[in-house]
Specification:
The protein is α/β, with parallel strands linked by helices. It is built from ten helices and eleven strands. The structure holds NADPH dihydro-nicotinamide-adenine-dinucleotide phosphate (NDP). NADPH dihydro-nicotinamide-adenine-dinucleotide phosphate (NDP) binds next to α10. Its EC number is 1.5.1.5, 3.5.4.9.
Length: about 280
């Protein structure tokens, strides 16, 4: 069994992305400007934001975090989003999840201009994704495709099990794979007999945040296991797959690890979307 080295993807693709961005900067005589809106003080959020800032800095994308009090009123946040939409110097906007209970993510994401919505999660961008004419591919779904490309895996004719049906991971990923003619099954916390669903799948992508949910007994020989989930157990980051025992058993073909597997490729995919948004924002003027 091979642990997929996703660092290779970054090493190959980051220089290409930097060159593309430098050419666009010269062409438009300005820089991409990426705004991240964070509400509250969630610790995990801080580390996700840090990795986004780090890669944006490395590419040379202007970026800053708009940190808001967890008690901010909905109307105030709506005004901040609307002002960012209207600011022609802002190329890309990201509203970081999770939000406090009094704020409805589904409503707020729809206020972001679809061209600046680089997470690509607003209704317009999701609808376009379903119809196979996406503005941008949502970042985690894009990361999964990049990883499958890296191992030369064609999803056509493959049985794929996605564990988790969230708007941010499971649903966009399922639609992207369906459009690529994969046969897709999406599971959730109420799914009957998860083990048999996983056992019958050539590719399993898990995004639940339940540590070690997928056991070695569930794994089909020769399958590909991609771990999106991140949770903290005894101070350590863990994925959804019972990694140590699955590795010992050794009958899968590929697996990604947590941390350092899918996560960094999700951030790379976000950077690609920001640069696309920068390009589109300038072309459309
Ligand atoms: P959500 O909480 O929105 O969704 C979790 C999904 O997992 C739900 O559909 C839920 O089912 C399902 N689920 C929970 N428990 C089980 C179970 N026992 N069996 C089967 N399904 C279960 O989370 P997100 O989609 O936002 O994130 C999921 C995980 O992925 C988190 O750990 C997050 O940190 C990580 N993540 C990682 C990224 C990366 O790039 N590596 C990017 C984004 C997220 P139900 O619908 O029934 O509630």
């Amino acid at each position: 069994m091979e642990i997929i080295n996703t660092k290779n993807i970054i090493e190959k693709e980051l220089p290409i992305l930097k060159n593309k961005y430098n050419a666009l900067k010269k062409k438009y005589k300005k820089e991409a400007n990426f705004k991240m809106i964070v509400v509250g003080n969630d610790l995990a959020t801080k580390s996700y934001i840090k990795s986004k800032e780090k890669m944006a800095d490395e590419i040379g994308i202007l970026n800053d975090v708009i940190s808001l009090d967890e008690n901010i009123r909905k109307e105030e946040l709506e005004k901040i989003i609307k002002d960012l939409n209207e600011d022609t110097n802002v190329s890309a906007i990201l509203l970081q999840m999770p939000l406090p209970n009094h704020l409805e993510y589904k409503e707020l994401i729809d206020l972001i201009d679809p061209i600046k919505d680089v997470d690509s999660l607003c209704s317009t961008n999701m609808g376009k994704l379903v119809l196979d004419k996406a503005n941008y591919i949502p970042c985690t779904a894009k990361a999964i495709i990049k990883i499958l490309d890296e191992i030369n895996e064609d999803v056509e004719k493959k049985d794929i099990c996605i564990v988790g049906r969230s708007n941010i991971v499971g649903k966009p990923l399922a639609n992207l794979l369906i459009n690529k003619r994969a046969t897709v099954q999406v599971c959730n916390s109420k799914t009957k007999d998860l083990a048999s669903k996983v056992k019958n799948s050539d590719i399993v992508i898990s995004a639940t945040g339940v540590a070690s949910l997928i056991k070695k007994e569930y794994i089909k020989e020769g399958s590909i296991l991609l771990d999106v989930g991140i949770s903290r157990v005894d101070g350590k980051l863990k994925g959804d797959f019972d990694f140590d025992n699955i590795i010992k058993e050794g009958n899968a073909k590929y697996i990604t690890k947590v941390p350092g597997g899918v996560g960094p490729i999700t951030v790379l995919s976000l950077m690609e979307n920001i640069i696309l948004a920068f390009e589109r924002g300038n072309v459309e003027k």
